[in-house]
Amino acid sequence: MPGPGGRGLGPRGFLTEEEKQRMPQVTGALLKRILSYLKPYWKQFLLVFAAILLSAGVGLLPSIITGRIVDEALIGRDMALLIRLLLMAFVTLALSQVIGVAESYVNAWISQRIIFDMKNQMYDHLQHMPHAFFTGERQGDIITRMNTDISGVSTVISGTLSSIVSNVAVTVTTLVALFSMSWQLALVGIVVIPLLILPTRTVGRTRWQLLRESQEKNDEMNQLINETLSVSGSLLVKLFTREQREYARFVAVNEDVTRLNLREKRSGKWFMVVMGMFTQLGPLLIYFAGGWFIIRHVDSALTVGTITATVALINRLYRPVESLLNLQVDFTRSLALFTRIFDYFDMEIAIQSPEHGEKPPVKRGDIRYEHVAFSYSPDKPLLTDVDFTVPAGKMYAIVGPSGSGKSTVVNLIPRLYDVNAGRVTVAGVDVRDFDLQYLRERVGVVTQDTYLFNGSIRENLLYARPDASQDELEAACRAASIHDFIVRQPDGYDTQVGNRGLKLSGGEKQRISIARVILKDPDILILDEATSALDSISENAIQGALETLMLGRTSLVIAHRLSTILKADRILVVADGKIAESGGHEELLARGGIYRELYETQFRAVLDSESEADDPADWQF
After folding, report:
1. How do beta strands 570-575 and 380-390 pair?
2. pLDDT at 612
């Protein structure tokens, strides 16, 4: 469960159980790989580290100057010296801030450039992943890797890495300054530090546990609210008269949330009280030890100013020491972040263009499936022995029961998937030997699930041919019977289609996608139930355009209407992982096999009401 500290993260200083279980293994190869992203910016890193060291050194001066102010200016009653020392303190403080700003800017520049590099690498890698990756991976996970995880690298670089260097520098310089002033007080000050840190960690762990429990109960309450106060949920509650039962459930959960919140608030208040006491106790112990050393003449060189400076330096030491104690947690989370990113980078790009891919003329070439086998998972074979030939320039229709693999058969041509056995050839060349870009440029596909980018109609059409003229756009849209609709819109071809084309109807989106393929002018045409989103009137309007588009092209059509099937040069019936039947419409009906069964189950209801049908050729299959 995501905790208050972030998605799936515990508070700073603690690893959740999930983080402990998934703790990445630290190897030289992993560290070397991470450093490879930092290497191009090593000069800037040196500048950052130099600024950190300079800032750590300058940061000591205000505390040291404070000691001189007490010893020399105040006790010595020297106003001129007091003013000079105050000005020096101010200048050192200002200089420290300026150095900090410069270091922060360079750090941010480095982290943003590394994020830029990694996002480019990730996007390019994902663009070349096979289609199976996107069908199997959750879109939210892909976006998380691209945005959240890679953006988190900024925190690692500007936070964890710089923090380690800064904290070590501050700790070392402060300890050197403390021991150089008075080693006895330095030892007392170091003993005080655990008194400040340990209560913080102990109480922090308790508060974290209470926050987790409170968050779990809040999630339970939100779930109850969403279920019972939604339109459907509230209707169900009313129909079954469960208002009192749901109210009792809500009161019980609300009581738990209130109780846990009060406990967390109480623990927080006591924590502040305890921390306030320990914060005051530390300086008191140093003042006591310093006073005892002076009064008892243990250290004759010790002065009031030295004691004052020691207190200031000990306060300066607290935060970096606490951060260094959390180093293992920060380091583990940083490695886990890089590991999640590298998991994607290490995914194999299974479908790639060969180094010297072939580019044969495909317009007059046959498409041949030679004993093709394919499966999405080894234990569930989908295609086992698909064997057929589509002669150049012919249109073959593919039919079959739902889930028989019709779409998979045609998706093997543009290599959205690769065969497990056998081969698919175009013009006598295995598609796996083609230059991949060349192959896909010559294949046009209209799918059942039409997708339009969030932009204008013009931009979506130009995706097929960026150099197409306005006349060519209009000709393609007229052929797809969508031009008249477009020009009726106030913005014409610049009309925005919305996210995924949601501002258009299904039929309008489908016709634009058909116009897009017409504009592409491919040599091989694949129609995967391309007119499924159209009504009979709309389909009839573009049927002629599709027939014109298919004329002279080798076409494979997954058909859902009898009108399309009847116009096919041959019908292929996919069943049981192979081409179970092949032939013409009447021939297949006469066999009384799978095609006949499909025909009967799909059309019997229409045949019984024939008097209400205008044209049997428009019946759906």
Report:
1. unpaired
2. 46
Task: Report whether pLDDT(281) > 90.
Answer: no
3-class state of residue 524 by DSSP: strand
Q: H or E stretch including 211? A: helix 183-229
Cβ–Cβ under 8 Å, residues 524 and 504: no
Count Cβ atoms below 10 Å from residue 125 Cβ, excluding itself: 14
Same domain, 74 and 222: no
Residues 98 and 178 in one domain: yes
pTM strictly above 0.85: no
| Residue with tokens 């049997």, as numbered in its chain | 616
Query: 579: domain range?
Result: 358-441+554-606
Phi-psi region of 576 (alpha: psi -120 to 50; beta: other; left: phi over 0): left
Tell me whether residue 549 is in a domain: no
Statement to judge: residues 428 and 569 lie in one domain: yes
Asked whether residue 540 carries a pLDDT value surpassing 60, the answer given is: yes
Number of domain units in the chain: 4
Residue-wise pLDDT tens digits, 35-94:
888 888 888 888 888 888 888 888 888 888 888 888 888 888 888 888 988 898 889 888
Nearest-10 crossing angle of helices 183-229, 304-325: 40
Residues 66 and 169 in one domain: yes
Confirm whether 542 is domain-assigned.
no
Phi then psi dihedrals of residue 302, to 5 deg: -75, 135
What six digits make up the tokens of 404?
A: 């028989």
CA distance 39 to 618: 65
The pair phi, psi for residue 505, each rounded to 5°, is -75, 170
Residue 575 phi, psi (nearest 5):
-160, 145
Q: Does the residue 504 lie in any domain?
A: yes
Residue 539 lies in a domain: no
pLDDT attached to residue 3: 37
Q: Are residues 116 and 202 in the same domain?
A: no
Q: What is the DSSP string of 144-194?
A: IIIIIIHHHHHHIIIIIIHHHHHHHHHHHHHHHHHHHH-HHHHHHHHHHHH
**CA 603 distance to own-chain centroid:** 46
**Other beta carbons within 10 Å of 570:** 19
pLDDT at 611: 38
Whether the Cβ atoms of residue 572 and residue 399 lie closer than 8 Å to each other: yes
Please, which residues bridge with residue 528 across strands? Answer: 558
CA angle 275, 279, 283 (to 5 degrees): 165
The answer on 145 and 216 residing in a single domain is no
Token pair of 389 as six digits: 């030939």
Q: Under DSSP, is residue 315 helix (H, G, I), strand (E, B) or coil?
A: helix
> Do 15 and 54 fall within a single domain?
yes
Statement to judge: residues 173 and 63 lie in one domain: yes
Under 8 Å CB-to-CB from 23, ≥6 apart: which residues? 15, 332, 336
Instruction: Name residue 452's amino acid.
Output: L
Of residues 541 and 70, the one with the higher pLDDT is: 70
Mean pLDDT of 581-587: 90
